[in-house]
Amino acid sequence: QEAWVLGRGGGGRVAVTTRAVSGSSNVLVLEGDSRVGVEVVKRFLAQGDEWNVSATVGGSNGKAKRYADALGALPVDLHDASSEAVANTSPGVIVSCIDADGGCGTVHERSRVFVDAALEEGGVTYVFISSIGAGESSDALPGPAKETMKPIMSDKYLAEQYLQSRSGETASGLEHLIVRCAPLNDLLDDSEVGKPTLTDSHMAYGWITPAGIGDLVHNCLASDKLALQSTYSAVDANTIFITNPFLRPLESHESVPFDSIVL
Question: Which pTM does this prediction carry?
Fold first, then answer.
């Protein structure tokens, strides 16, 4: 299916291949016992019978017990964080919430195991939740954060690159979507959705809630207007920040400094 989306920076339109993913599909959420993972799981469960939801649990030192407890209270099939989870659930969609606070190895090391398993499974759409600051979006970070966050962002960028390279192999049967999310908003409850916004601009920055990420990921998969095999940035339209020449909130009278994608 072909659709039109705004090119980066609003410069013209380009034709892209799109595919809506929904309807009695199996979805596997990696590291569902994380702050973002719990909200992603809840969003897919909210669709009733449209999705059969499974999740991996890490049980690693960096995870807060309350997120593991929150996941355990949901009607979801739980699996150990190993590649066997992919074979056991036969997912049409994998949503990776693997993050740097997982505590057991780097993001790219933990991620590549599941990318390889998805490739072997075939017919999988793999959504990797990354961070604004990875790759070319490093210029969106406030000045001091660039050096502070460099090791984490380099790690996530390696994970992105591996997913892109394996997905790009001829007849791989693996489609991917990379969503670089803004830092999490600690002033709101994790379950508040807000106004999550997607853009192909590398300069978007702000905050976003975990539930906003879950909502955005689901809407991306349900949309027939979004290009797969692509990388996007995600922020909450209510909490956009300008980072140059200094960090400040976007004022109400100012225009949003990037084009949003309507799903």
Answer: 0.90
